[in-house]
Amino acid sequence: xxxxxxxxxxxxxxxxxxxxxxxxxxxxxxxxxxxxxxxxxxxxxxxxxxxxx
Length: 53
Prior knowledge:
mainly alpha
């Protein structure tokens, strides 16, 4: 069994998010750069890993 841990991508400022939306941190969206980096990371993982169980 393999366990792969992936850190989430860069997200916007947490304090700004809460003060402007009142919503919890787990709903805070990734920045554009954070989304791009995560897409690249997942493409790389797809190339080297088999289909997960």
